[in-house]
């Protein structure tokens, strides 16, 4: 089964993102975020884990009742009660999905589940079959696939597809893999599993080593057609792959990838801000795409370059991802061109080159004392320079 002609974006901000300690959201907040994700044109919204609590069940159901243009998914462990609860929660959706998972790594099977590999396969098959009776769209994840035996993964995935799984998701649950390794695992599984072509393949990467986006993109290169990610990279521990980074990497480097996403990129910044405000997890200033400095230039060399031609130091347009424009920050590294350009924007005119020089000199002295020079500072500087000459 193919995804058609685009990379499917599966957003799990409301499920894995919410598992970030301190990020829990109310039903109303989840619905607001889900609406923003729908505007962003996310293909699938994982709205929560219905068996986790009554509140989570109600949130998933409310999202399923509200959203019409994205598929709504509920997570379930591989047991009957979880699957039935997830099925009930997503039933009102225009398009629903049940996502069931069970751990497959030796350490998880032995120490956490205390099940033999045979028992794990049995549970996976029973869970997928039960889910397929409730929903025609079922995703199966072998949890901790990144640390599982490839032979065992082949066995359980083949059985899950035979049982009716329509999407196979490969999680690097603890963010342990390196990009070539994760890509190699995907390639190996796709080659060795005889019925692999009957499912859409997906990657779900965590960021414990800061490699979630790199690993997801490496998997895309090897044939996955769905990437699971979250707004601002929110998620357990160090988080999940950041949706905005995946989307803009694929769009900016289309030459390197087989297809694009359907994401409405202008909605990236508003959605990022909404998630940050609701969860209280503020975005670091140097965060790619949505950090306040992502399109800001401070050094004179860079400002001069961008003023002459933006592509000298910009690989994307700020406007394309929701910013009003790029930003020239005036500080001690800034040069005369950026200083003059900002003054002109503010309507400050210099009567002579001498006056500009004097004002620029004063600006440099002030910049040594302050982190950032604001518009009011420039007005004051210009007046002082005019008086001084
Ligand atoms: O990280 C993980 O393994 C998960 C699964 C439930 C897909 O979030
Ligand atoms: Zn996860």
From TrEMBL:
It comes from the Bacteria. It catalyses: 3-methyl-2-oxobutanoate + acetyl-CoA + H2O = (2S)-2-isopropylmalate + CoA + H(+). One of its GO terms (cellular component) is cytoplasm. Mn(2+) binds at residues 16, 204, 206, 240. Signal peptide: none annotated. Its EC number is 2.3.3.13. Keywords: Acyltransferase, Amino-acid biosynthesis, Branched-chain amino acid biosynthesis, Cytoplasm, Leucine biosynthesis, Manganese, Metal-binding, Transferase. One of its GO terms (molecular function) is 2-isopropylmalate synthase activity. Its cofactor is Mn(2+). GO terms for biological process: L-leucine biosynthetic process. Pathway: Amino-acid biosynthesis; L-leucine biosynthesis; L-leucine from 3-methyl-2-oxobutanoate: step 1/4. Residues 7-269 form the Pyruvate carboxyltransferase domain. Homodimer. Catalyzes the condensation of the acetyl group of acetyl-CoA with 3-methyl-2-oxobutanoate (2-ketoisovalerate) to form 3-carboxy-3-hydroxy-4-methylpentanoate (2-isopropylmalate). Belongs to the alpha-IPM synthase/homocitrate synthase family. LeuA type 1 subfamily. This is 2-isopropylmalate synthase. The lineage of its organism: Bacteria, Pseudomonadati, Pseudomonadota, Gammaproteobacteria, Chromatiales. The gene is leuA.
């Amino acid at each position: 089964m193919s995804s058609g002609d685009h990379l499917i974006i599966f957003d799990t901000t409301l499920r894995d993102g919410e598992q970030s300690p301190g990020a829990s959201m109310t039903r109303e907040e989840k619905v607001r975020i889900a609406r923003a994700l729908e505007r962003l044109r996310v293909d699938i919204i994982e709205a929560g884990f219905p068996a986790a609590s009554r509140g989570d069940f109600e949130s998933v159901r409310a999202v399923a009742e509200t959203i019409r243009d994205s598929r709504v998914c509920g997570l379930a462990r591989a047991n009957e009660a979880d699957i039935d609860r997830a099925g009930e929660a997503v039933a009102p959706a225009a398009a629903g999905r049940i996502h069931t998972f069970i751990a497959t790594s030796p350490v998880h099977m032995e120490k956490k589940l205390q099940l033999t590999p045979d028992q794990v396969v049995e549970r996976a098959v029973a869970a997928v079959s039960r889910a397929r009776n409730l929903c025609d769209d079922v995703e199966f994840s072998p949890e901790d696939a990144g640390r599982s035996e490839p032979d065992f993964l082949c066995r359980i995935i083949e059985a899950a597809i035979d049982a009716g799984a329509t999407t196979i998701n490969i999680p690097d649950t603890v963010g342990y893999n390196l990009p070539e390794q994760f890509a190699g695992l995907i390639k190996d599984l796709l080659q060795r599993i005889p019925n692999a072509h009957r499912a859409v393949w997906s990657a779900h990467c965590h960021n414990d080593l800061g490699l979630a986006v790199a690993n997801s993109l490496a998997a895309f290169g090897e044939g996955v057609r769905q990437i699971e990610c979250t707004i601002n990279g929110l998620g357990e521990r160090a988080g999940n792959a950041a949706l905005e980074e995946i989307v803009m990497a694929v769009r900016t480097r289309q030459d390197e990838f087989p297809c694009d996403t359907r994401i409405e990129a202008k909605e990236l910044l508003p959605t990022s801000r909404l998630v940050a405000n609701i969860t209280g997890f503020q975005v670091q200033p140097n965060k790619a795409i949505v950090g306040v400095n992502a399109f800001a230039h401070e050094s004179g060399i860079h400002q001069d370059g961008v003023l002459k031609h933006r592509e000298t130091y910009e690989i994307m347009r700020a406007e394309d991802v929701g910013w009003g424009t790029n930003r020239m920050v005036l500080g001690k590294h800034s040069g005369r061109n950026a200083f003059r350009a900002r003054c002109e924007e503010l309507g400050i005119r210099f009567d002579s080159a001498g006056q500009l020089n004097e004002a620029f000199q004063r600006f440099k002295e002030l910049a040594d004392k302050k982190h950032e020079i604001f518009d009011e500072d420039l007005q004051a500087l210009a007046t002082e320079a005019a008086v001084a000459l």
